[in-house]
Amino acid sequence: MEIKTLEFKDEKLYLIDQRKLPNSFETFVCETYKDVDFAIKDMVVRGAPAIGASGAYGVVLGAKEYKDLEKKDFLEKMEEILEVLNSSRPTAVNLMWGIKRMRNVIEGNKELSPKEIYEKLKEEGNKIAKEDVEINKTMGEYGNTLIPEKATILTHCNAGALATVGYGTALGVIRSAFYSGKDIFVYADETRPRLQGAKLTSWELVKEEIPCKLIPDSVAATLIRDGKIDLIVVGADRIATNGDTANKIGTFMLSVVAKAYNIPIYIAAPISTIDFDIETGEEIVIEERDDEEVTHIQGKRIAPEGVKVYNPAFDVTPNENITAIITEKGIIKPPFKENILKLRP
């Protein structure tokens, strides 16, 4: 089953509304850049590569909206739009990467008319989306070389087709192993508080008939201790040049247990997720989200009124806890800084 998380057609951006899964499959239609900004902030679309592509298409929609302005006014408006979309969510570097690519298109074509710039932006948005799927499939092939013929795999959050334009990063590796005929079994953490593992990862695995079980986050350490996990594979939202990796909250906790029991943990992420401007994970801005994600489930309060909440969306796994990073350029192993910098664009 091919899952297309987003598609640009008829001058609109169509997104799978991931807030509604798995109970209903609905499409969220973006007609303006403000729609895209909302969709990213409210997690209609989520996952670093998907956010990057969506942000790029948000720039396209902004250009469509203002392409009849005089060039000076158009360029000023586009600068505003770039800034708005660049700050939709602070941690996923793919968003900034996608916006930067669109900014480069504008900067490199200022001699053209607004309508011509709009067409150039649309071409670049389509290119980003097409590249993402190709990159994920290549990454999956590299990652498959790390998976034994028979393996039980633990994953956290959702790094599947729904987190990308298609195919997925961590789940792309799992897909590639499954499609190659390997005997694999997947444990998917539910991933509190947004439950991406329960709602999204398990939905993808069931749709593709990949053998799996959904588990509470608190079960993972017991499975690792009892020797029931062969390896862990997760995605990433931002990777520092020393290999420190920001991913969904709870990843660091898994890495600590995995290291204690000598279980390999692999990060699957495109080169665009590496932030070559930061040296360590200490420089990564961690998004904090609304209290209600913790105090409520499906709109119903489960915690007492007045309780205070700390709800970071991500944590940083230090490079010493990571076995390898799977990218479309190959598998990066320690020493991470030396080997990551070799891939700098």
UniProtKB/TrEMBL annotation:
Residues flagged as site, Transition state stabilizer: 157
Domain of life from the UniProt record: Bacteria
Active site residues per record: 237 (proton donor)
GO MF, any single term: S-methyl-5-thioribose-1-phosphate isomerase activity
SUPFAM superfamilies in the cross-refs: NagB/RpiA/CoA transferase-like
Pathway involvement of the protein, from the record: Amino-acid biosynthesis; L-methionine biosynthesis via salvage pathway; L-methionine from S-methyl-5-thio-alpha-D-ribose 1-phosphate: step 1/6
Alphabetical keyword list: Amino-acid biosynthesis, Isomerase, Methionine biosynthesis
Catalyses which reaction(s): 5-(methylsulfanyl)-alpha-D-ribose 1-phosphate = 5-(methylsulfanyl)-D-ribulose 1-phosphate
Any one GO BP annotation for this protein: L-methionine salvage from methylthioadenosine
Binding site for substrate: 46-48, 89, 196, 247-248
Enzyme Commission no: 5.3.1.23
Function per UniProt: Catalyzes the interconversion of methylthioribose-1-phosphate (MTR-1-P) into methylthioribulose-1-phosphate (MTRu-1-P).
Family: Belongs to the EIF-2B alpha/beta/delta subunits family. MtnA subfamily.
Protein name in UniProt: Methylthioribose-1-phosphate isomerase
Organism annotation: Anaerosalibacter bizertensis
